[in-house]
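Q: How would the structure tokens look for this protein?
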Amino acid sequence: MPMLLLKNLPRYECLLEASKEFPDLDPSACEAFLHLLHAGDECFRAMETNLTHHAISQGRFGVMMILLNHCRCHGDTAALSPAELADRTGVTRATMTGLIDTLERDGLVTRMPDAEDRRMLTVSLTSKGREVLHGILPEHFRRMALLMQSLSETERRSLVQLLLKIKEQAANLAPQAAPHGATAG
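A: Here is the predicted structure in token form.
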């Protein structure tokens, strides 16, 4: 889902002109911010194409990837609660329930009672879910590499450091409140 609903970004000169009317508008900050969002949208779109080809949404893919990574770190039978999945994806618990429902319906995950607390449920990836991911991931990773191939290794490291600084500043400006992304399904 695109974050920036602009096909063409305003030129720097236009931002400079607008700053006369809006003194808080820093033209270079605005230009960098708009390019950041636009690049993110284009990357999202490039990755979404592969997921669409496999008939899976970003939300469902994200849940499956979290479960796969959790299994890699904690063993093949490792599972997470729906609440833990919601926290790790940044969606509401209600949204996570919908994502899990569709993943379970398609045989990609399974819900089971928690071994320690039978009132709780845990979610784990099925062998079919692993197969689906193994069908998606080669092209997914190839697309990632293609998106980043114009940057040298040093530039990639610099980009990561810069993005981490922006992420930290964003967290300072908007402390974590309720999870967002209620429509990730």
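Confidence is low (pLDDT under 50) at residues 178-184.

The beta strands are 109-113, 121-125.

Upvote if useful.
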